[in-house]
Design brief:
By secondary structure, the chain is mainly alpha-helical. The chain has five helices and no strands. The chain has a domain of 46 residues.
């Protein structure tokens, strides 16, 4: 994952904000998990598309609200047997 993080930060003027977003991601999602890697890759895709720093940060953090909502409801957010909302 370090290589993805370095690519995201390359050429960014204020890497502290990206570092903070990644630390929040680490505190919320398992670094070895699929959603952690997905979040970083989303940030990298946005970077390669020319998105600004704040959009990249939003991409990195986009899975966190979903996980927190499921934790509040008592559901396992990563269960394959989740019921679909209608």
């Amino acid at each position: 994952m370090q290589d993805i993080i370095q690519k995201i930060k390359q050429g960014v003027s204020q890497t502290e904000q990206i570092d903070n977003a990644i630390e929040l991601l680490k505190a919320t999602l398992s670094e070895s998990g699929l959603f952690f890697a997905h979040s970083l890759r989303t940030g990298l895709i946005l970077k390669t598309m020319g998105a600004d720093q704040f959009t990249i940060i939003c991409g990195i953090l986009h899975e966190i609200p979903e996980k927190l909502n499921h934790l509040r409801s008592g559901e396992n957010p990563f269960s394959l047997n989740r019921k679909q909302k209608t």
